[in-house]
Design a protein that fits this description.
alpha/beta, Rossmann fold, UDP-N-acetylmuramoyl-L-alanine:D-glutamate ligase, 2 domains, eleven-stranded mixed beta sheet, seven-stranded parallel beta sheet, 19 helices, 18 strands, about 45% helix, binds ligand NPW, binds adenosine-5'-diphosphate, binds potassium ion
Length: about 500
């Protein structure tokens, strides 16, 4: 269940299920039952539950849950935002079923605000879900603030009210839930920040929408969004063959910066080797050759002079993946090196200074990409953090959600874009995208991005395409971070990668 559906796509899946013969009220009853079950687990055998219900179907799920909880013996209070007479469709039906179970609703207003959260031991947030269309204001916003300030555990229905399901952004005040029950599939907003934090622990309930609805909603691969998970890229990443030799696993190159900034390239090179590249060479300017050579063992060192020298080195076609950027220095020289890397037929990863060296000149980069030929023409990966992204693609892209920005960047450049952060997004030029959620905050440490560059380059060397290598690299980097644990430094990631890979291969069989 790694597919992510936007609220609009989820609406289409709902509609397809209904057209296929599942009545909408049945979907709502199952949704509400799943919410009631989750609430029972939170509240224990007894307790008081406050249901805040909105004017749409999210509120409808809340009415079903309220009725079920009442029947289970909980003390339940329902506060409805708006006029019950304006409820329609399935929500109106669920409301009358709740009333038939002798549970009435109060109206959420200034007069009833002091009952929020009142004596409740759990609040069910059924104000707004997929239908949130604008920032929350007025009494609903005040109720949200009161709930958030109370410390009472909150169970959100579908999404924490106020969170945009497509982008994860908070539109005005937003519920801070301890748990969220959503239906059928996650939405991007459950994984993107701040939505991920506001949703708490998320549970996906099966409400009877057939999996076939997914194919109809998405049609082709392009434009799909996934949670970044081994199920997405695992099939493309095989362990070495029994009769394989090191050249079958590729030869990665990492370009080093000058004598005083070589550590980044070595971190990347070590990670590339650990990620499984058969051979790794640090290509170093002569001034830094000695410092690199004195620190490297399994990784080889070769010296080059300028972009002409790098081009000569790269005439060896066995060098099938190259990374440039970590510690490279910003300017014309790095830019020329990047164009040299891109001129060949190998896979290329550009990070850090290589990206910044194209500040506001994404056209120059896109032009170089469009001139690439050969089987690996599409295997170019850019790994900017937010700052580098803004430098390359311009401030105009800054307002959009991270998912939209990564997609726009991939489309503008023609490369796979890894927009790094706590909620890293990987996007391909054809619109495919994956959102990562396994990275611990401990990864926010100097050099951690260099290790990521190395992992991805090592995977590119083994023949994974740009999107798979980027997704797999980001996931393995996150997993290595979790295994290295608190107080990790970038140096700890390479050894931790060993266990991350061991776990992955043992699960992949
Ligand atoms: N479809 C199905 O079969 C199933 C759907 N399910 C459930 O339905 C939910 C989606 O339902 P939904 O589409 O009715 O949207 P919902 O989130 O209730 O909000 C819409 C209402 O809120 C209003 N409104 C919006 N923003 C507002 C604001 N800022 N401030 C004030 N008002 C605002 C908006 O009014 P309008 O924008 O039209 O003015 C409209 O009245 C989904 O999350 C899931 O829980 C499940 O039961 C499974 C089956
Ligand atoms: N709060 C966070 N939680 C999880 N991962 C993070 C967080 N902040 C940063 N990261 C990850 O750490 C890495 C930092 O990379 P980068 O910004 O290039 O740093 P550096 O240049 O120091 O290596 C990226 O992979 C990013 O996704
Ligand atoms: K909600």
């Amino acid at each position: 269940m790694i597919e992510l559906l936007t609220p609009a796509e989820m609406g289409r899946a709902d509609a397809l299920a209904i057209a296929g013969g599942v009545p909408g009220i049945d979907l709502m009853r199952r949704a509400g039952l799943a919410v009631a079950d989750a609430c029972s687990r939170m509240a224990g055998h007894s307790g008081q539950v406050l249901v805040l219900a909105g004017p749409g179907n999210n509120g409808g799920d809340g009415f079903v849950a309220a009725k079920v909880l009442r029947q289970r013996g909980y003390r339940v209070e329902v506060l409805l935002l708006g006029d019950p007479g304006r409820l329609s469709g399935d929500a109106a039906l669920a409301f009358s079923e709740m009333q038939a179970a002798r549970l009435t609703a109060g109206i959420l207003s200034q007069d009833t605000l002091d009952r929020v959260p009142g004596q409740a031991s759990v609040v069910i947030d059924a104000l707004f879900g997929a239908g949130l269309s604008r920032p929350i204001e007025g009494v609903a916003g005040e109720a949200i603030d009161r709930v958030n300030g109370s410390g009472v555990p909150v169970l959100a229905v579908d999404l924490p009210s106020g969170v945009n399901g497509a982008s994860g952004e908070a539109m005005g005040p937003a519920i801070r839930a301890s748990r969220t029950v959503t239906f059928f599939r996650l939405k991007p907003g459950h994984l993107l920040l701040p939505g991920r934090q506001l949703a708490g622990r998320v549970e996906i309930a099966d409400i009877g929408i057939p999996a076939s609805a997914l194919d109809e909603v998405h049609g082709s691969e392009a434009g799909k969004t996934w949670r970044n998970d081994p199920a997405l890229w695992g099939p493309a990443f095989r362990p070495p063959c029994l009769d394989g030799h090191k050249y079958a696993r590729g030869h990665a190159v990492v370009v080093s910066g000058p004598a005083l900034s070589t550590g980044a390239a070595r971190l990347a090179a070590g990670a590339a080797l650990r990620a499984g590249a058969g051979l790794v060479t640090v290509a170093t300017p002569p001034s830094a050759a000695l410092v690199n050579a004195s620190h490297l063992t399994a990784v080889m060192v070769r010296s080059f002079r300028g972009s002409g020298g790098l081009a000569e080195m790269l005439a060896d076609r066995r060098l099938n993946a190259i990374a440039l950027g970590p510690g490279a220095g910003v300017g014309d020289e790095t830019r020329a090196l990047a164009l040299t890397c891109l001129a060949g037929e190998r896979a290329v990863l550009l990070d850090a200074d290589a990206i910044t060296s194209f500040t506001a000149e994404v056209e120059a980069l896109a032009g170089a990409l469009s001139r690439r030929t050969g089987a690996r023409a599409a295997d170019v990966v850019l790994t900017p953090h937010d700052g580098e992204f803004a430098r390359l693609f311009g401030e105009s892209a800054v307002g959009a959600s991270r998912l939209a920005r990564a997609r726009a960047g991939a489309q503008a450049s023609g490369a796979v874009v890894v927009l790094k952060g706590a909620d890293t997004v990987v996007a391909a030029p054809d619109g495919r995208a994956a959102v990562n959620d396994n990275a611990p905050a401990w990864l926010a440490t100097a050099g951690s991005g260099d290790v990521l560059s190395g992992i991805v380059t090592g995977l590119l060397a083994q023949g994974l395409d740009g999107f798979d290598a980027a997704c797999a690299g980001v996931w393995l980097h996150g997993r290595a971070g979790a295994l290295a644990g608190p107080a990790l430094t970038a140096e700890d990631l390479e050894p931790a990668l060993r266990q991350a890979l061991a776990e992955f291969f043992s699960r992949a069989g």
